[in-house]
Amino acid sequence: MTTLPEGAAYKCYSVVNPIHSTIYFSPDYGEELAKLGLEDSTAAYFVGRAAAMGRVGPGIVTATFFSFSHELIARHIPAAWDVISPEVALEARWRAADSVLRRVLGEEATASKEMAEAAELALRATEGCSRLARPLYAAHADLPIPDAPHLALWHAATLLREHRGDAHLMTLVSAGLDAVEALASHTATGKGMSTKWILRTRGFSPEEWEAGRQRLCDRGLLTDGNELTEAGERLRQSLEDETDRLDAAPYEHLGAEGVARLTELATTFTMTARQNGAFPADLLGKS
C-alpha cells in the first residue's frame, strides 16, 4: 500500500460512484422487473440491491440499507421474492445496467479502450477491499465479474460503493445517529439528498422527518432554521473523515498513479452521464 495525496481517495470514489448510481434514476431496471411481474418501483430498488444477499427478510434489508423506514421495506420484502427470485433479479439488473450505460454514455464510450482501462483499474482497486463487517459489499463481492468492460466497471463501482457505504454505517451508529437523524444532518450540509427526495423515497413521514430534526436540535447539532451548528459541522466532518479512513484500503492498493488515472477516466464518464440526464436536477440540496 502507498500513501495517497490528501483527498485523492474520496475524489476518486466521488466520480466512480455515480457510474453505479445511474441505474437508480432510470426506468430500465423497473421495466425489466415489470416484465417479470414486479411492477412497483420501490420494490424494484429493494430487490435489486438486496438480491446479492439472497432471499433475505425485511430485517436484514433495514439493517444493511439503514436509511429507509423498516415499515416501507416490510411492505415489499419478503413478498417480492415470491414474484421474482434473487437470481432472476440479478440477471435483470445486469440487463438494466447495460442499457442504462449505453444510453447515458453512448455506444462509442462503452466500447472504448478508456472504458476497458477504467474497468481494469477499478477492479484492481477492489482487490484491496475487505469483507469483514461489510455485508452488502461482501455479498456483491461474491458475484461473478462480467466480461463486457462497461459492465465490469459498473460492477467494480458497485463494490466500491457498498464497501464505503458499509463503513459509513459503522460511523453513523458509533455517533448515535438513527436513519432520520443521519439523513437530516447530511441534508443540512447541502451535499445530501434533498428533503423532497428523501420524503419521496425513504418511507418516512413529514412528522417523522421533523421529529428527527428536532432531536438533532436537542443535541445541539442543528439550528431551528435547519442549519448545522458548529458542533453539527464538526460531527459531519468527523463522520466523513472516519469513513475515509475505513475506506482507504482499495485506493491505497491501487496506488497514487492508478487512483489519479481512474479519477480522470471516471470524471469523463460521470460528466457525460450527467449531461445526458442520468440524474435529477433537484436530487441534492436542503429543500
TrEMBL record:
Designated name of the protein: SalK
